[in-house]
Amino acid sequence: MITHPRTEELVESVRLWIDEIRPSLDPRNAFLARVAANAMATVYRELTQGPVAEARAIAAMAEVLGHEGTYGELNHALCDRIHAGDFTVETPGLLAALKVMARDQIAIDQPNYKPEGTPPPPPK
Amino acid sequence: MTVDVLASLPRLAQRLGGETAHLAAAERLSGGASMETWAFALEGPNGHEDLILRRRSAPFDPETARSVSLATEAALIQATGANGARVPRVRHVCDETDALGEAYVMVRVDGETLGRKITSDARFDAIRPTLARQCGEVLVPIHATTPPAGLNLKAVDGQIELDRYEEVYRATGAERPILELAIQYLRQHTPPPVEPVLLHGDFRNGNIMFDPQQGVAAVLDWELAHIGDPAEDMGWICTNSWRFGRPDRPVGGFGDYADLLAGYAAAGGRSIELSRVRFWQMLGSLRWGIMCLTMYLSWRDGVTKSVERPMIGRRVSETEADLVVLLEQGL
Hints:
The complex is a heterodimer.
Chain A: H1 7-21, H2 27-65, H3 71-84, H4 94-109
Helix pairs in contact in A: 1-2, 2-3, 2-4
Chain B: H1 5-17, E1 22-31, E2 35-44, E3 47-56, H2 70-82, E4 90-93, E5 103-107, H3 115-120, H4 128-143, H5 158-172, H6 177-188, E6 197-199, E7 208-211, E8 215-219, E9 226-228, H7 230-238, H8 257-266, H9 274-300, H10 308-313, H11 316-329
Antiparallel strand pairs in B: 1-2, 2-3, 3-5, 4-5, 6-9, 7-8
Helix pairs in contact in B: 4-8, 5-9, 6-9, 6-11, 7-9, 9-11
């Protein structure tokens, strides 16, 4: 795609503009504007990190399932196998694959979120 | 029907404080999707009173709502308070005369409810190590309260909750392998039902008023009260979505499981195994993830148009990141 500007730069410019006008808004709209700016930041991260995350998810799911496919096909098959009871927490590689996918997704959706198992921050 | 709260408050002030009383201040504190909270004060012959008005701003449908009516909420606060629970004092339940719709008035309790302040603000450093134990203690008189007759509270157990949320998840059409695995795992590990008790139903950091010197000042937000397993209230406050950046402290981001359980037992509560609390904690993550999905769907289907809703949909992955670790650890 064209590079002057790139898609993520358009998104970033909108985010910066929302942040600029936020102080001039009433409390309710200021809150919604912050949510909108966060949405733009999420889109930015999905554009920049999404392709690598998706490739990694495809590889991880294909490994567990033992066959190739698109993201949608593999995700669907994985859900089916779990729902049917073929796959459980004991299935070799399943939890490890799901963990990689979950970590990549939270890095896009909420990079500041501290999931279960995160060690305490260093003392101030 | 549109309600003009600011226009109705002066008359309410007179009703509560006597004919010579007047409204001294009024300010809207927060507005959720369906609930409003107002702080107001009145000056009257009996002096100054700081009060809180809680009112429903969207129509209430008892058939579909998970929540109870505000009159039921007020009745439960009164009943648990009479049984020694730390709750606000209900000052007045509104009726047609007040022209405020479905609403009630509480005496204001000072303190902090913002979860992140409780977990991280220096003002709470000294009291923080005692809070998990206090949370265990304050649950005991709530769970020991006999609900007033005629409230028709819903009764659930682990099995019923799992059935309900799996049904909601299937209806969304979303395909999320971690949620699938959590449903499967929780079904295999559902603890046997116990003698059910009155539950707060939304007992978590964020719904508790904390005082920096004393600790728990009041348990707020009773709209999800129901009947069920006492471990449900304990598991929900341990769900990581309500630890506000401190997953290393499982109880609310401020304390440890052992203190929560010890406080509950020391105050006369029945003995509860940690694995039962962990079951409800994990079900709490699953439930919050599925609720986030349904909030996104309410936007997709045109029910609500706020940008908040699709963004809450992106919070499903926080519950997945938590659930996958819980699945590794086991209960």
